[in-house]
Amino acid sequence: xxxxxxxxxxxxxxxxxxxxxxxxxxxxxxxxxxxxxxxxxxxxxxxxxxxxxxxxxxxxxxxxxxxxxxxxxxxxxxxxxxxxxxxxxxxxxxxxxxxxxxxxxxxxxxxxxxxxxx
Length: 118
Hints:
Largest sheet: 2 strands, antiparallel
Radius of gyration: 16 Å
Helix content: 40-55%
Oligomer: single chain
Strand order of the largest sheet: 1-2
Number of domains: 2
């Protein structure tokens, strides 16, 4: 079971690696009923089984509301989509393994979605 302290420790470790003081960052745990974060930032979605989405935005309040309303990324529908196509995504891992996050997203959009819809 993932604990908030585990996530916080991992985030602080990442901040150390890139040379950003954790004291310069605001952090907290929120759910869709308690979003009161403004400005730019990174966010992590997790449940008891682990982290299932990491994102970043220039407008936290808007982006998190979009997620909570099921409009983008970490929404339940996207997680179910990825689980549905997980075997195909893994079978083609040699094509996306060296890509950054944007590149992996484009791989899924172009390889998995476009080929399925043609």
